[in-house]
From TrEMBL:
This is Centrosomal protein of 76 kDa. Keywords: Cytoplasm, Cytoskeleton. Residues 364-494 form the CEP76/DRC7 peptidase-like domain. GO terms for biological process: regulation of centriole replication. Gene3D superfamilies: 3.10.620.30. The keyword Cytoplasm applies.
Length: 662
């Protein structure tokens, strides 16, 4: 079989790397030395090639090499003749032992290897996990130029055993780059860093953000042989953003190797110029923002207590303009409509940023999108920023609103402005939508005013990726606000040019680009069955402790499915459907003289034991699970609805039917 010259050299390189990795050359030298000592000493005879091969076979070295080499034979004729495809990002699931990636020999790749960690001192006393024992794990999530990767989970330890490699395509067609092989000078102008997020998952499946780091990879352009090793010190997040949490050993390598490397002086000068340019843009924006704020306070002295937020801190404690946390985000084929996007954002977990110590103060932390998606939960600001970005991607005129809820609790939500002037509020934590109809305080008392259904009390400002408006109406109460953003007597705008200078994706800025959303890796049917089976066991055990027997009615369980599907449809579209058929089916399944009771409940996690404990807190559910009577039959149905990023909505319905005995 003829092989193209570039493929032949690529194969040789792969084989050479495999041999080096297994230290085959060293082992062969040892066997040769031993064979020479044993065979050659007595008679001083010459050893043939066959003798040496036989010796290597006896030592098991050849067998070891053959085991390591994997041959792929199931390649169709179409694949053999088609042009090489650019690499795609790995699917966000636990990776198998070996991955096949299409490599285009005409393009540049950055091979990033994580070769272990050290000095994770928080886990110094962590005991060695026993085989099969569930333990806390670290997972590393990466984003680079529209590509996302995830490492294999490794047990938490002082020196975590990370050994993962990620092949990052430097020049991408999808980003408008040309298809030619890029040189070092062109790559030096690509200022996108590799964003690395370290997540800890505990034994209950709860995730914690440990560190977020932006790796400057371009130092490899000046490295000898296009290979460099870096020790990356990771700092904590939030209030611990100045504290070291550990060190990762990283090896960077360019594929194919550069014919001509740059000098370190050139790369360092480029980095210094970029930092200087970014700092100058941010300084000018800060000067403008201060001037804008002074003008805003001069309109009305009470403006200084309104929630007008111009800057926000990210997980690393770095201040960014709030507009930089928003960007139109298209979900491809993963989400089909704005309301589905709102449902997806609402099923991502809600958790306030952790605070060390008491006092009830709120820790401010607006996470970057990769950090939010990697841990699958965040504060209300993270949810609102993501929902606003998705709605902008769907072509709506969306803004994030900053204000308060009842009792003056700070809150953020999303607003869309219709072409007909309709103002719609979107609650990112629940997916609920509210139409805003302002109350006119000048109307006579007898005029009936609309009663607001939304939970929002005051509003200080609204913003998106291009615009920022401060509320300068006499009252900041939401119910009396008029959202005519073009009226400068009601909303004080910021300069669009000033916002664009620091927030546009093309600008040299410290704001990371947005990662693409990943498809779900959850098999809905399998997961639904698993949770349902676990719940059946938990219910049977619970009833056994009460001295009650348990008889399951599989047919009744199946009949609960349409109700669960209708509940999720209603949450997504606000349209109720299929209730008549469900009620008719239940009436036919429950005989005369029998009573039916059902209890639906909704979760955003897949832990059956935790869900069961929550269900028992409801007296209605406990009444069903502890049902006593004649001919008691129990039913449970679980339906998992998967969403992008492996988020999911889990609907559970417990039911029972029994004969009423008076």
């Amino acid at each position: 079989m003829a092989v193209a010259p570039e493929k032949a050299s690529e194969l040789k390189q792969i084989i050479q790397q495999q041999l080096l990795q297994m230290d085959v050359h060293g082992r062969i030298r040892e066997v040769l030395a031993e064979t020479v000592r044993e065979e050659l000493a007595p008679e001083h005879q010459e050893l043939s090639t066959e003798d040496l091969v036989k010796a290597l076979q006896q030592q098991g070295i050849i067998n070891d090499i053959m085991k390591e080499l994997k041959f792929v034979t199931d390649v169709s004729e179409k694949e053999r003749t088609s042009a090489p495809k650019p690499s795609t990002h790995f699917v966000d699931r636990e990776p198998p032992v070996l991955k096949k990636t299409n490599i285009d020999p005409t393009r540049r790749y950055l091979y990033l290897q994580v070769l272990g960690g050290k000095a994770f001192l928080e886990h110094l006393q962590e005991p060695e996990p026993l085989p099969g024992q569930i333990c806390s794990t670290f997972t590393l999530c990466l984003h680079f130029r529209n590509q996302r990767f995830r490492s294999k989970p490794v047990p938490c330890a002082c020196e975590p055993d990370f050994h993962d490699g990620f092949l990052l395509e430097v020049h991408k067609d999808s980003l408008g780059d040309g298809s030619k092989m890029v040189d070092a000078t062109t790559m030096l102008s690509i200022c996108d860093p590799v964003h690395m997020v370290l997540i800890k998952t505990d034994t209950f499946g709860e995730t914690t953000l440990v560190a977020s780091y932006f790796l400057e990879w371009r130092s490899v352009l000046a490295a000898e042989n296009s290979i460099t090793n870096i020790a990356v010190e990771l700092l904590g997040v939030g209030s611990e953003s100045k504290v070291s949490v550990g060190v990762l050993n990283i090896r960077l390598e360019m594929y194919p190797h550069l014919n001509k490397t740059l000098s370190p002086e050139v790369t360092n000068t480029q980095f210094a110029l970029e930092r200087q340019k970014t700092a100058e843009k941010e300084r000018l924006f800060l000067v403008y923002a201060k001037q804008w704020w002074r003008e805003y306070l001069q309109i009305r002295p009470t403006h200084n207590v309104r929630l007008v937020k111009i800057f926000a801190q990210d997980e690393n404690g770095v201040n960014h303009p709030v507009c930089s946390y928003i960007r139109p985000l298209r979900a491809g084929r993963l989400l089909d409509a704005p309301r589905q996007a709102a449902r997806f954002v609402s099923v991502l977990g809600y958790e306030k940023a952790p605070v060390i110590g008491g006092g009830g103060g709120k820790q401010e932390q607006w996470c970057t999108l990769l950090a939010f998606l990697s841990r699958n939960k965040g504060d209300c600001e993270d949810h609102a920023n993501l929902l606003c970005s998705l709605l902008l991607g769907f072509g709506l005129d969306a803004f994030v609103c900053v204000g308060t809820k009842a009792k003056g609790v700070p809150h953020t939500w999303v607003m869309t402005c219709g072409t007909d002037g309709t103002i719609t509020f979107w609650e990112s934590l629940t997916g609920h939508r509210y139409i805003h109809r302002p109350i006119n305080p000048d109307d006579p008392p007898l005029v009936e005013q609309p009663k607001p259904l939304y939970p929002y009390r005051t509003i200080g400002c609204v913003f998106n990726h291009q615009k920022f408006f401060g509320n300068c109406q006499p009252s900041d109460a939401v119910e009396v606000c008029v959202f005519d953003l073009h009226d400068e007597s009601k909303w004080k705008p910021m300069s669009g040019e000033a916002i664009k200078s620091v927030c546009s994706p093309g600008s040299t800025s410290s704001v990371p680009s947005f990662p693409p959303l990943c498809a779900s890796t959850i098999d809905a049917a399998v997961t639904s069955n698993e949770i349902e089976l676990q719940l059946r066991i938990l219910v049977s055990e619970y009833r056994k402790d009460l001295g009650l027997s348990t008889v399951w009615d599989d047919h009744l369980s199946y009949l609960l499915s349409p109700a669960l599907a209708a509940y999720e449809l209603e949450r997504t579209t606000s349209v109720s459907a299929g209730n008549e058929e469900f009620q008719d089916a239940i009436r036919r399944a429950v005989p005369d003289g029998h009573t039916f009771k059902g209890f639906p409940i909704h979760f955003v996690y897949r832990n059956a034991r935790r869900a069961f404990a929550t269900c028992l807190r409801s007296p209605f559910c406990e009444e069903i699970i502890c049902c006593r009577g004649d001919q008691v039959r129990l039913a449970v149905r679980v339906r998992v609805f998967p969403y992008p990023e492996s988020a999911c909505a889990v609907w559970i319905m417990f039911a029972c039917k029994y004969r009423s005995v008076l």
